[in-house]
Structures are given as C-alpha cells and as structure tokens.
Amino acid sequence: MLTLVIGYLLDLIFGDPHGSPHPIRLIGKIIYGVERYLRDKCKNSDNERKAGVILWLTVAIISFLIPFIILFFVYKFSYILGIIVESVMIYFILAAKSLKVESMKVYIQLKNNNIIEARRYLSYIVGRDTGNLDTSSISRAAVETVAENTSDGVIAPMLFIILGGAPLGFLYKAINTLDSMVGYKNEKYINMGRFSAIADDVANYIPSRISAYLMILASMILKMDYKSAYKIYKRDRYNHNSPNSAQTEAVCAGSLNIMLGGDNFYGGVLVHKPTIGDNIREVEIEDIKRANNLMYVTSILCLILGIIMFL
User: How far is CA 166 from CA 39, 213, 270, in A?
Assistant: First the structure.
C-alpha cells in the first residue's frame, strides 16, 4: 500500500511523463511485434484464433515477469530501493492525471469558444467522429470518456496493484492494452483479437462494479445526486456493448442528471447505441470538471479501501 500511495501521489503531481521511456508504450511495441510475427504463420481463421491466444499469453507473461524479476532482486538488495522502484512503476501504471489533463484541454477550448480546437483535442481521446459535434455533444463525449476510464484507467489498475503490487498492475495494463490494440470485431481482428477482448471483459468485470459503487459514494461526498446515481446505475449499467463500460457511465450520468451514450458516427457510419441516464438537462461544459472531480474522489476512496484491507 505504501508504494501505491506514493505512486498515486507521483501521478497526481506529475501526470504522464511525455517524452520519456514508458513501460505501457513498450507493452504496445511488444504486442505489435508479436502480432506481426504470428500473422506470418496464420493460414486460416482457426490458426488466427490460436495465434490470438498465444499473443495474449506471451504479452501477459512478459508484462508480469519482467517487473516481478526486477523487483525480486531490487528488494533483496535494498528494501528502501525496492519501495522507490515499485512506486515509480506504479506511477507509470496509473492514469488519473493524464485523464484529467486530456479532458480539460477540451474544456479549456470550449470555455474559450474555440469549438474547432475542442473537436481536435476530443478526437485524441475518443473513437467517434468529432468534426460536426456541437458544444453539448463535445462535452458529453468528454464526460463519457472520463467516466468510463475512471474504471479501466484508474480504479481497476489500483485494485490489481492492491492485490499483487506493480507486477499484477502491469499484467492488468497488458490486458487492457491488448484489448485496445487488437480487441476489435472487424475483419482484421475478429479472430486474432477475440481472446484479448474476452480476457479484458473478464479482468474488468469485478473492478468496474467496485468502481461504480465507489463512484456512488463519491457523488454523495461531492453533494451530487447520489440517489439518482444509484437508480440509473441499477437501470442502465448494461446499456453498452461491453458488460463493463456502462457501469461507471451510468453512475456519472445519474450523479449529474444528464444523458450519456446514444447514436454516434464512427468513420462516417452512424452507429446506434442505447442511451444512459435521463435527459433532465442538456450536458454543459462544466460537466467535464464535475466528471473529473468524481474520478478523483472515487480514486481516493479506492486508496482508502486498500488501506483498510491492509489494516
């Protein structure tokens, strides 16, 4: 827990260290290299599915073993040095400050009435088409991103770290990165990415639900509409293709009395999606800040939960 607290504070202060070697980017390069090697061996869809399992196992094992071996020897050499090294590893795993910074770039441009730049910054953090979105739609997309990533970018890795330190945290990030890189249902990845997509759903099943309940408590602390947060969570938590993504989105929508989700364009194609929450009021720019406040209080509650578990 000490290393998690230190790592969390480092992330809170410094955020994502742009320009420096980053373990998560290294995991991405490993995924790319292993996938390219395995594709050369595939002749049919059955081979691709088997290759997808091999890809997942290879990346997961490497991502867990490397930090485990490093920490094993560092802790043997010096306990204090081990604390320092593992704290820095955890700092690289967590993404709370990065999530806030990237979403607030959108917020700042909207406050400055620069909708063109707001759309551009939004395009860096969402998959939907942003070229024709108005202020409310941009704000809604940013809120959705913060709400969803509160679970898989912040709380889920924290929970894995609580259970198994930095090595288990890196294993989770590998699972998450595999899903984001190959877990698509398109022609290229429908077979090779199938196992990675399923594994990500399994890994996030419990953390997403813990995140949701922690966020309901956070909405109470922040004097938001926590009763609506719970009601919308129970009603709309499965209004998404993923069994996990709508868990925290539903809580956020209820807390803010807004509607998230709904139809969006992806690559010029209209994709119909269910809505989350009630359309009590239109999403506004300030909701981006409110979603970030929810994210941070939720993460602090997760830290407290971890400390209680170790008492």
Answer: 31, 24, 40
